[in-house]
Write a structure and sequence with these properties.
alpha+beta; about 20% strand; disordered N terminus; rod-shaped; about 45% helix
Length: about 140
């Protein structure tokens, strides 16, 4: 059953429906939205013409890929957070110099942000601990 022409339905709470084509659609759908779409498709199929088993297996494989991608992203986020915490632990009490050399000082504390560890110096200035920052 082709689902590319479905024009109405409800997206799960907090999500908006977006018309996409090809593999872009599969990569933008989370596991809950995909499962909702699959169940809606199964409920509305013509009983005299059930879904082709190869199409059904293809959709289940796509669901599995979405689920594995979600798990992989969660694990990568955990590794990144661990790396940020390690950088923060290394920097506290040491002298850092920004990549352009304009800011230098002793690190009083470190806050983990989405951009990476943000070091607050004893004088109140902040330096993002990223590429080119020297920790001495």
């Amino acid at each position: 059953m082709d689902v590319s022409n479905i024009s109405q339905g409800t997206a799960p709470t907090g999500q908006t429906a977006t018309k996409k084509t090809g593999s872009g659609f599969a990569s933008s759908v989370n596991a809950d939205a995909f499962l909702t779409l699959l169940l809606t498709q199964l409920k509305n199929q013509d009983p005299t013409k059930p879904m082709d088993s190869t199409d059904y297996m293809g959709e289940l494989a796509t669901f599995s890929e979405v689920e594995q991608s979600t798990k992989t992203n969660q694990k990568l986020d955990a590794i990144l957070s661990s790396n940020y915490l390690s950088q923060a632990d290394t920097a506290i009490g040491r002298t850092v110099t920004s990549s352009d050399g304009t800011i230098s000082g002793t690190v009083a504390s470190v806050k983990i942000t989405t951009d990476g560890p943000l070091a607050r110096l004893t004088d109140g200035r902040e330096v993002l601990l990223g590429n080119g920052v020297v920790i001495a």
